[in-house]
Amino acid sequence: MLGPLFRRRRDDGDRNYVALLSLKLLLLAFFIMLNAISSYEEEKARAVLESVNNTFRGDASHMERYASFDQALDNLDDKADLVTEIERLFETTIPAVEREQGSTQNFLRLKLPVEAMFLGNDVELASGRELLLKRLAQFLQKIDAEDSYYEFEFLYGTAARDAEVTSENKIASFDLILKRLEVVANEVIAAGIPNDRLAVGLQPARAGSVFVVIRIYDQAPPNITFSSYREER
Question: Which CATH architecture has domain 68-217?
Fold first, then answer.
């Protein structure tokens, strides 16, 4: 016959096993529910994995400025007519223009030869390019009329870091690039594109080309600064 102390310990042990088993069953049910309500989007998952891999490899050539609010990006497929008009505008002006496909359909990225925008070693834009930017601004204003939001980006391709270029030539080249970016920024603002929607920069390892990137949002993304980020936290 079991003593009272042994029976009490056995009863406590049984209750612990039941509690542990109940906890495991609850966790299993929780993960089953998550799996049931979740949806797997292969393209977005691949883009995230590629971004993480490129970031931890430290390969800057794979990095590109993407909007921080992808959930607010509109789909360019819904604005096919506008995209066609913009492409036709560039194609009729610059036949060598190419459309580059990104990881999503949320932005239009056009590749142009440097010579299509600038002549020789001139800092100023080639003839007729001011008119091109003005017409582009008119097309983009239609986006505002549809209660959407856009951003315009102009990237200047540079040589790879390991390219055999002397220091003096490299300094002279970057000086010319910066002056040209300043000219483009001034012309774009003069054409009617607000400066808070404009960005200019460099595209590594793509010497000889410049890039026009247009992003369209269904609404204006929030303006997050370091101070506001600290306040939110």
Answer: 2-Layer Sandwich (3.30)
